[in-house]
Amino acid sequence: MEIGWMHNPRQRQVLVFFVLLSMYGASAELGPYSVVEETERGSFVANVGKDLGLGLTEMSTRGARIISQWNKEHLQLKVQTGDLLINDKLDREKLCGPSEPCILHFQVLMEKPLEIFQAELRVKDINDHSPVFTEREMILKIPENSPIGIAFPLSNALDLDVGSNNVQNYKISPNSHFRVLTRNRSDGRKYPELVLDKELDWEEEPEISLTLTALDGGSPPRYGTAQVRIEVVDSNDNAPEFEQSLYKVQILEDTPVGSWIITVSAKDLDAGNHGKISYTFFHASEDIRKTFEINPLSGEVHLRSHLDFEAIQSYIINIQATDGGGLSEECTLLVKVIDINDNPPEVTMSSITKIIPENASETLVALFSVRDQDTGENGRVVCSIQDYLPFFLKRTFKNFFTLVAEKALDREERAEYNITITVTDMGTPRLKTEHNITVLVSDVNDNAPAFTQTSYTLSVRENNSPALHIGSVRATDRDAGANAQVTYSLLPPLDPHVPLASLVSINPDNGHLFALRSLDYEALRAFEFRVGAADRGSPALSSQALVRVLVADDNDNAPFVLYPLQNASAPCTELVPRAAEAGYLVTKVVAVDGDSGQNAWLSYQLLKATEPGLFGVWAHNGEVRTARLLSERDAAKHRLVVLVKDNGEPPLSASVTLHVLLVDGFSQPYLPAPEAEAADAAPAAALTVYLVVALASVSSLFLFSVLVFVAVRLCRRGGAASVGRCSVPEGPFPGHLLDVSGTGTLSQSYQYEVCLTGGSGSNEFKFLKPILPNLPPQCPGKEIEENRTFYNSFGFNIQ
Q1: What does R_g of the chain's alpha carbons equal in angstroms?
Q2: What's the average model confidence in pLDDT over 511-517?
Q3: Where is the Cadherin domain (predicted)?
């Protein structure tokens, strides 16, 4: 399953194979630098800036620093001067142990641009340790018959220093039987051998005590001592013999403590006490004695402490078998430690950028190194991150890697990324290490404010109060912080004739729109303007939307009568022949309303009449018609008050007064005197007086009527035209009075011809007959019924 994951082409991963020890053999690009151990903190090592050929300011601007895989920072880089200084005292023995030379590897990192230089520091040894014997007292049993010149190896002294500061020579206290020789082992260490110069005599001196001194090569030399006690024993002519001179064994590094490793065996041909063999470690280092133990009787070797392949890969153990007579033999045990996958990969972060701008591409997010202390497949590692993230890993130098953004990020799409760097080795079982990095995407002003609508339509009723809130616009910005703070403003109007600054204002913070003054529907029914929204980024981005304000009509205009005009110097008098039939068009009241809609729907009704039932008003177009046939008993003068009312809420109205004169014919023009209007306005008592006078003079009136009748008949025969006199308005009507939906205009069924005559008196006009002729009356018996049917069909309003 994991092998398939390794070969998945969509899985972005960086395959790294490195062996830990190979790093120490890598050639350095800087140095090598050297320093003596125990050098004081702050001591000068070298000038890295000069070695790199960089100026003083360039070291600082490029972000130079020291990175290493040490647990403690031993070096310090002064970027101002380029000097490499000691950060703390270096103990060569703790850093490298017996290894020589002692080399510490480190890297010089340049961040801008990214560049890594490999360097090494060699720590020189000083003579700060004295030789120490692992055995303070050594006991040798030497047969008395031992030949002169026989050598007896002794335990060596250990010195933590290296080179010439290690043990160089051994000395023995003055005596008459022995001298000491200094020998070299295969690993370079020196050990002492005790050489017999004079025969021993057990009976003369059964025990000899000597002092062994180990000297190092320091200046001045340091030394350590141990006691050597020699027991002279009786003759023993057979030494022990091992079955093998070299034993080899392999052991896993996770072998439990106490486990049996191997059993070594030796034989001695002597009998009795001279044939009894005991086993010991000979010339064993402190590490060997801490790690292994041997049974002195059986020769079984057991594990005493845990093994660590990464620390020591093999042990060479010298085992000595000694019989009861003091003779001994040695063999070598080679223990090879087999590595197991017990170390997970290690991730060391050298540089992390936690905040990156959204418009930057291929931005360096992190610089890190990986290592695995195991070897072989156990030390081969794979680095990977999540597949769905816009980042990739790139190997830069040996075991160093960079985490880079592969493209420009979009904060509005995603503002935070949690990146998990997974380092997995190829051992069995596989071990892995995860390192989490949280990357925040900083905002860049790359989004303009966007209105919720491209256009807004607002409605406000006319006669509003100033500073009235009429609506709002709203824009949002996907950016963050100051880049998302939106400010609203009014843009210059599309129509330069619209005084936008005096009509509306906008709150720059929330987009609320206010009417600055009271609006008049009759003057301004609608207007448009643009609203801008800008953010506070740098540079600022903006957008705009169109706002249309519709002014709703209010019923604030009463009907205005165009005809008859009421403020004329002389009242308008309509002449009606007494022979007119029912439905005869007397006149038409023409009115308009400045409002619109139902506020301008006008209706007409007859409010007052001198003789109710004689005249009627058409409710929809204001035509005044006779409601029945006229008779001689009807009064000659009539005063009609017509009410014009709109359909608003509440309704507004206007009234107009009409004067109608009934005449027998149009042969004698009739022009009412100026005082006639005053007479019409006199009280009803005056009319009564006239009637009384008429009754008293009935004879004269009858004669006058006969004469008038004859005169009218004569005029008709002569084709004389009927002429009336009335006052008509001069000049244009007010501009704000409009014809609304035809209401208040003359019916298209009637056309009138108006003529104006000059003169010192009132203006004159003449009504001609309608284009549609009046039909002759039917038989007298049906006249009243037909007339009633006629004005009912026209919707007369009869008083």
Answers
A1: 65
A2: 94
A3: 134-242, 243-347, 348-451, 452-561, 576-676
b/e string for 152-187 if b means 16 or more Cβ within 10 A? bbbbbbbbbbbeebbbbbbbbeeeebbebebeeeee
| pLDDT classification of 66: cutoffs 50, 70, 90 | confident
Which contiguous run of DSSP H or E holds residue 701?
A: helix 698-717
pLDDT greater than 60 at residue 459: yes
pLDDT digits (tens, 9 = 90+) for 10-53: 333 333 333 333 333 333 478 788 898 888 888 898 888 888 88
Instruction: Give the length of the chain.
Output: 799
Which of the 8 DSSP states describes residue 147?
P
Quick check: bond before 780 cis, omega within 30? no
Assess contact for 670 and 575: CB atoms under 8 A.
yes
Q: Given this model, what pLDDT does residue 169 score?
A: 93
For residue 247, list its beta bridge partners.
333
Q: Distances in Å between the alpha carbon of 81 and those of 55, 56, 84, 660? A: 9, 6, 9, 119
Own/partner contacts of 461-464, CB < 8 Å, gap of 24 or more, are: 461/551, 461/552, 461/554, 462/518, 462/519, 462/520, 462/521, 462/522, 462/551, 462/552, 462/553, 462/554, 462/556, 463/518, 463/519, 463/520, 463/554, 463/556, 464/515, 464/518, 464/519
CA 375 to chain centroid, in Å, comes to 45
* Domains recognised in the chain with CATH numbers: 33-124 (2.60.40.60), 132-233 (2.60.40.60), 241-338 (2.60.40.60), 346-442 (2.60.40.60), 450-552 (2.60.40.60), 560-663 (2.60.40.60)
* Torsion sign across C-alpha atoms 663, 668, 674, 675: negative
- Does residue 522 sit in helix, strand or coil? coil
Instruction: Name, in order, each residue with C-beta under 8 angstroms of 277's C-beta and a sequence gap of 6 or more.
Output: 240, 266, 267, 268, 321, 322, 323
794 secondary structure, DSSP code: T
Angle at 606 between CA 618 and CA 594, to 5 degrees: 70
